[in-house]
């Protein structure tokens, strides 16, 4: 079973109470359970994490690169300005799927640019919590296409 990190940036720990008109009523705990369940169905071991700390998120990305782990990443606000995160992600050694609950292109202008998209395998956005399930499906497909060396 391949381990996958599902990493979440700032304010996503407040899902369920944060802007429910944009993000819905699903809590972060519900999202984590959804990801783990989807992972089991896809033969993936899903490790779901959230931080409001940019340095911690970068450390997790380094861990993934060192261990050759795929990443599903919702960088949240870091999407639009964190060149440190972008540079860490450029060191990836496995698939990286950027994910967003809402569609950033349909929101405020400052959300239209992702500094991490250029180093991601792909981006899935706008499907609510299902964006994570779709991202995990994409990771499973990418892994099936390119089996690990060994």
UniProtKB/TrEMBL annotation:
InterPro entries: DHquinase_II (IPR001874), DHquinase_II_CS (IPR018509), DHquinase_II_sf (IPR036441). SUPFAM superfamilies: Type II 3-dehydroquinate dehydratase (SSF52304). Substrate binds at residues 74, 80, 87, 101-102, 111. Pathway: Metabolic intermediate biosynthesis; chorismate biosynthesis; chorismate from D-erythrose 4-phosphate and phosphoenolpyruvate: step 3/7. The keyword Amino-acid biosynthesis applies. Coiled coil: none annotated. This is 3-dehydroquinate dehydratase.
């Amino acid at each position: 079973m391949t381990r996958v990190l599902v990493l979440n940036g700032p304010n996503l720990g407040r899902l369920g109470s944060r802007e429910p008109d944009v993000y819905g009523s699903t809590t972060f705990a519900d999202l984590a359970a959804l990801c783990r369940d989807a992972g089991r169905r896809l033969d993936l071991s899903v490790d779901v994490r959230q931080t409001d700390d940019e340095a911690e998120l970068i450390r997790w990305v380094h861990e993934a690169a060192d261990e050759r782990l795929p990443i599903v990443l919702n960088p949240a606000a870091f999407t639009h300005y964190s060149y440190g995160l972008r540079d860490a992600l450029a060191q990836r050694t496995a698939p990286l799927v950027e994910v967003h609950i809402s569609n950033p292109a349909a929101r405020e202008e400052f959300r239209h640019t992702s500094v991490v998209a250029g180093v991601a395998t792909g981006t899935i956005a706008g499907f609510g919590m299902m964006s994570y399930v779709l991202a995990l499906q994409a990771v499973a497909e990418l892994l099936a296409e390119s089996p690990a060396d060994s």
